[in-house]
Amino acid sequence: TTWLVHLPDRLPRRRAQGGRGAQEAVDGGPEALAGFCSDRTAGHFLDDPWNGISNTRHQHLQFPQQADKMELTFEPLKNDLLLRAARGETVERPPCWIMRQAGRYLPEYHEAKGTRDFFACCRDPEVASTLTLQPIERFAGLLDAAIIFSDILVVPQALGMTVEMVDKKGPHFPEPLKTPTDGQYEKVLSKNVDVASELDYVYKAITLTRKKLAGRVPLIGFCGAPWTLFCYMVEGGGTKLFMQSKTWIYRYAEESKALLQKIAEVCVEYLALQVKAGAQMIMVFDSWAGELGPEAFKEFSQPYLSYISENLPKKLAEMNLERVPMTVFPKGAWHALDSVIDIGYDVIGLDWLQDPAEAVKIRGDRRVTFQGNADPGVLYGTHERMTAAVETMVKGFYGNGKKGWIANLGHGITPGVNPEDLRFYLSEIHRLTKN
């Protein structure tokens, strides 16, 4: 039987200085190797997660025992700019990618989607993979990452809720959670979610996409943040008033926290399985974070974001998987930036309400990378306006050293954008940072 094992290009210093090395573990067979891997992902990796780790190489090892499941292997990564920037390393230029880069603004998206329902596209690994790769192929050389085509609302679906995507209106929950006495609330809370089988189609799409990428750029996996998913589950869809969400947290605070915790636990499992399938970085989207004031954010959003950042690395270690960079995007919660910097994420996404230079001042010497943050609406403007927006970001985020910034927008690209205007925006980022 061939065992496929990830070994680092260079061992963590503590392992290299003494004790049983990787080759000794390999020679000892699967049990010794498992012990080595378990030790290698122990506590000091969580304290200093990137200490001694560089890109991994694959080795094929022969053991007589039959493996239950073979570990996936992919072509080596040719462009690791995103991962290095996320780790806080000095880079030759800031990496670029765009939220919702696989989407409705692309003519080829509509051709590939055809008459399929949105969630049908998500559930078909071949279609999801095709849609994921469309911007990588159209903007070859300008994008430094792919993000899997999926949706944050697959988690409520896994929790047993029905979610429909209504054309031109967005997501709709026919039966939202109404009160804690609602039978569906107890059903969701007590559901033993088999995250591996319920969301298997996402993992298949990730693995297929990694193989198709052939190492061109890293692949990002993602989930919605507990607070944002909670809002959809009680509102029944998008909203401007957040009346039900506010009723829940201010009238049923403890029951709300129980649901938020349930969602957070499912998110950890879901993200870990995405990494196992091939995701090289993960992102947590808290799209409705800005609907909470400073105190409410600290009570109903931040603790559950922290739960994910604390427990995902532990879960990966249990699975003998290396830690991957983690991004959080608390859209609109500009007031919480100082505290969010300290909750364990490698990258913080910023929306366009945050001034780049001010964000850098708040960060100080703390090791975190910012992502963003031009107004997506600038892509409807003139090229001169786009250049000015890029100049503001470059000066604010990148002027004091070539690290700490991943270029993006302050939210997802919108459907009416001309793809060639996005090309210009990306090209300007490259042009203004190449020196």
UniProtKB/TrEMBL annotation:
Protein name, UniProt field: Uroporphyrinogen decarboxylase
Domain of life: Eukaryota
Origin organism lineage: Eukaryota, Fungi, Dikarya, Ascomycota, Pezizomycotina
Example of a GO MF term: uroporphyrinogen decarboxylase activity
Main location (coarse class): cytoplasm
Cellular compartment(s): Cytoplasm
EC number, as in UniProt: 4.1.1.37
One of the GO biological process terms: heme biosynthetic process
Entry keyword set: Cytoplasm, Decarboxylase, Heme biosynthesis, Lyase, Porphyrin biosynthesis
